């Protein structure tokens, strides 16, 4: 009797197995690297609802304008963050930069209107330092060599020179360099860092 029951269960399993498998919805994505079984399609309405939470813009304070009447902020209208000027609380944002890449740090020239900022290309993380006169028709000027990684920019009190971190010497060490922004050829090392160390300029001395 027990043997007959076992055989009956085996026959049912053999014939019902293919039928069960045939009812499974199977979808392969990414050239077969992702296999979905019995997972329903996601309604387009869910995607639209999620966009309200994923496409949230933020704004960060960068610096004051020379007279202190307005501020510079970093925010985005499109896909990348750019510099904007806001003239009063709750005021409209006036876009200052229009680049295809997001900008990194931004510092205004002491006693002047020019901005220095860092920006890489295509997410390479090899940021270059640029000089820009807001509101002018001139393009931003690249101050660094276009190959090394640069950052941690500090203006001197006169608004003529900058100190910054750069790997220009050998492509790896974070040395500290200095240059006159009106003459990038004056760039020179003021401190060579040892292997495996991280140095950056903090400020200029009063003199």
Please specify the SSE layout and strand pairing.
Elements: H1 2-22, E1 26-29, E2 34-37, H2 44-54, E3 60-64, E4 71-75, E5 82-86, E6 93-95, E7 106-108, E8 115-119, E9 128-132, E10 141-142, E11 150-155, E12 161-166, E13 175-180, E14 183-191
Antiparallel strand pairs: 1-2, 3-4, 4-5, 5-6, 7-8, 8-9, 9-10, 11-12, 12-13, 13-14
In words, what does this structure look like?
This protein has 2 helices and 14 strands. The chain is α+β, with helices and mostly antiparallel strands and 207 residues long. Among the domains are: 2-42, no CATH class; 101-191. A 4-stranded antiparallel β-sheet has the order 3-4-5-6, with no helix packed on it. Strands 7-8-9-10 form a 4-stranded antiparallel β-sheet, with no helix packed on it. Strands 11-12-13-14 form a 4-stranded antiparallel β-sheet, with no helix packed on it. The protein is flat, with a radius of gyration of 29 Å.
Ends distance: 104 Å
Largest sheet: 4 strands, antiparallel
The portion of residues assigned to helices is 10-25%
Mean of residue pLDDT values: 82
Tell me how many strands there are. 14
The spatial strand order of the largest sheet comes to 3-4-5-6
| Global Rg | 29 Å
What descriptors fit this protein?
alpha+beta, flat, single chain, 207 residues, 4-stranded antiparallel beta sheet, 15% helix
